[in-house]
Amino acid sequence: MKLDAKDIDFLVRGSANYKFFKIKDRPIQEPKARLQAVHLRVHRLLSRVAVPAYLHSAVKGKSYLSNALAHDASQPLIKVDIKKFFASVPEDAVVRFLRSDCKCRSDVARLFASMLVCNGKIATGSSASPILAYYAFKSMFDQIATLAGEHGLTFTCYVDDMTLSGPTATNAMVIKVRAIIAKFGLKSHKVRRFNASSPKVVTGVCIMPDGIRVPQKLHLAISRNFQERSTETDTKKREKITASLQGRLDAAGRIDAKFKSRADTFRASTKKAQPSVP
């Protein structure tokens, strides 16, 4: 991808290059097509760089599923998230990453960073944000990984969803992890601790000693979508429910083969039901 001075001048115009909307009351800032192409290029380049084994997001060959499977379901487990992580990554953190890790000149780093943030923060709808957020706070994640290693724990990270499992996954360990996060100016939340014998949901996957399961929450959402779809008469609303249901069936299918068959059958039935275009 080549950008001339005119392109750069256009792409650094801040919020003018973004679409703003909400998904379930969550504010989304999505780069428009030209800027998203730049963000996608950044994502692809950074994804080629070798990262620590604990990272499972924005890494080729890894996913939320590999993140869950990394943990032993028979061990105690801790989960910690970072509150509003993307909205907590400031432009200055992106500049520091570009200067220190990417060895950009200060003026280049500042100019480049202005194309990667919206209103001073990384955008929630950008393809580059997951990997940028990681590098902006890599030192923090590395410190938590070191702490986990010192105590014989398995540590994984999927965006801001951190999981630690092993015999020493105790309340005392939760306090230590939260202290590291606070040291970097971030707030932790959604803290959960599971006993060794408890079913554990990690990045949307229920892990059990005898294998993985589709979480009850996803089961209920699928059932609710089927019911809503059967009674909805408005065409546009029904299409929206259908898309949501297909996405949930596909997600369940990546965990359980029975749901994959169900997802494929549903996709084929809805495609067949669509009116043909003359």
From TrEMBL:
GO MF, one example: RNA binding
Reverse transcriptase domain boundaries: 50-187
SUPFAM superfamilies: DNA/RNA polymerases
GO biological process: defense response to virus
Signal peptide: none
UniProt KW keywords: Antiviral defense, Magnesium, Metal-binding, Nucleotidyltransferase, RNA-directed DNA polymerase, Transferase
UniProt KW Nucleotidyltransferase keyword: yes
Transmembrane segments: none
Keyword Metal-binding: yes
Pfam family, any one: RVT_1
Family membership noted in the UniProt record: Belongs to the bacterial reverse transcriptase family.
Name of the protein: Reverse transcriptase domain-containing protein
Lineage: Bacteria, Pseudomonadati, Pseudomonadota, Alphaproteobacteria, Hyphomicrobiales
